[in-house]
Amino acid sequence: MSVPRVKTLAEAQRVWIVGGPGCCKSTLARALAERRGIPPVTLDALFWRPAFAASVEAFAHRADCVVWTDPPLRVTWPRLLRRIVRRWIRREELWGGVRETFWTVVGPRSILWYAVQVRGSQRVANQKLFDAFSGTGILLLHTRDSDVRSLLK
Fold it and tell me: What are the tens digits of pLDDT across the range 72-89?
């Protein structure tokens, strides 16, 4: 895989942001897109399209920078809790037209429990991703910072 080498996030043209639930992937994507005057492409937006896997692969293989946002669970879990409770109270529409319900907030399929269950496996998968891209010329950034916007400074 040959991509132009970039040395900083500011130079990157196609940034792939990975991380678990509540890790501020969308926050960073919006901030980067706003700086460039372009719309962000989020995994949630791709998920609700036909041909999800092909869309993700097409975006991923064109990336010149991969950012792994990886704040501690003590940061991400309360962030998720605030977000889903806010969505539930305000009846905000999510991707695909669904809305939070009492059971999606506290039930066994809640994103809160999902985040805890998959945290370890997602971290392993993201490390494997970074290992696979090592030496390809793609800029790899891994941050444990709770404020991903610090990457933009």
Answer: 999 999 999 998 899 899
Q: Which of 138, 149, 146, 144 is nearest to 11 (CA)?
A: 138
Q: Is the pLDDT of residue 12 over 90?
A: no
Q: Would the pTM count as exceeding 0.85?
A: no
Instruction: Indicate the residue type of 106.
Output: V
What's the Cα-to-Cα distance from 51 to each of 25, 55, 58, rounded to whole Å? 22, 6, 11
Q: What is the per-residue DSSP string for the chain?
A: ------SSTTT-SSEEEE--TTS-HHHHHHHHHHHHTS----HHHHHTSSSHHHHHHHHHTT-SEEEEE---HHHHHHHHHHHHHHHHHHT-B-GGG-B--HHHHHSTT-HHHHHHHHHHHHHHHHHHHHHHHTTTT-EEEEE--S-GGGGG-
Nearest to 6 by CA among 67, 60, 51, 59: 67
